[in-house]
Amino acid sequence: MDPSPPPHPSTPAQRAAWIDARLAALYPATPVPLDHTSPYTLLVAVLLSAQCTDKRVNLQTPGLFARADTPEKMVSLSVAEINAHVRPCGLAPRKAEAIRRLSELLLENHGGAVPQTFAELEALPGVGHKTASVVMAQAFGVPAFPVDTHIHRLAQRWKLTPLGTNVERTERDLKRLFPETHWNALHLRIIFYGREHCTARGCEGTVCPLCRELFPARRRAVRIQKA
Q1: At what angle do helices 79-86 and 54-67 cross, to 10 degrees?
Q2: Catalytic-labelled residue, pool 20, 54, 95, 148
Q3: Is residue 8 within 8 Å of 216, Cβ to Cβ?
Q4: Largest CA distance in the chain
């Protein structure tokens, strides 16, 4: 049974607990959206997903990984060859250059393995904090809360972080509100929900099931404005 919505007005902590339980009921399974076979192929796929959809990345990576699914194989390709596979993902050839260079650095500094610390990951070309967080969470099971556009939007809609805040503040607020043991599954659940129900233009905080249940006053106000 779905949990009853928190009393109104509710605190961020009350909303967070209810959202956590509601999303766990909606999405008991949390498959990783990006197709991969190893921490290395996940790292490459996440890098490619910057300003690109997971669906598009999953269409392009099979061809690339058929030729190079390890750092050793990747450095045998030229930037132009890598770029030919990843061009539809956008920001090419910058991504191709980053993939080849980070593969070289993995071989030079990490024995060809993907490092398992945030600092070492973020030192690699093309790897920012969000990419490192995804790899740490999804490849190694380390608690992390990568904030993508869906999570950033919904955290503000659900009043878990202030409107107009930056992603760094959103990440801090979400980590404070939700149990650390839930972070890895929860960040995926929020993404799934944002894609399926609480879209940028399709909900606007008043249409999807969670927004309707959390903020009935907001919905009434919109109806009055339209009347």
Answers
A1: 140
A2: 148
A3: yes
A4: 66
**pLDDT tens digits along 30-41:** 999 999 999 999
Separation CA 180–CA 4 (nearest Å): 23
Of 120, 140, 160, the residue that ends a domain is 140
List the CATH number of the domain containing 77: 1.10.340.30
Interatomic CA distance for residues 124 and 40, integer angstroms: 12
- Does residue 63 fall inside a structural domain? yes
Cis peptide before 9 (omega within 30 of 0): yes
Catalytic residue, chosen from 130, 159, 173, 175, is 130
CB burial of 62-73 (b: ≥16 within 10 Å; e: otherwise) equals eebbeebbbbee
Are 50 and 117 in a shared domain? yes
Verify whether residue 20 is a known catalytic residue: no
80: domain range?
Answer: 39-140
Residues 79 and 97 sit within 8 Å (Cβ to Cβ): yes
Check if the beta carbon of residue 32 is closer than 8 Å to that of residue 138: yes
For residue range 59-114, list pLDDT tens digits in order: 999 999 999 999 999 999 999 999 999 999 998 899 999 999 999 999 999 999 99
Domain for residue 154, yes or no?
A: yes
**Per residue in 109-143, pLDDT tens?**
999 999 999 999 999 999 999 999 999 999 999 99
- Catalytic residue status for 173: no
Does residue 95 belong to any structural domain of this protein?
yes
Residues 135 and 44 in one domain: yes
Residues 6+ apart with CB under 8 A from 107: 71, 72, 75
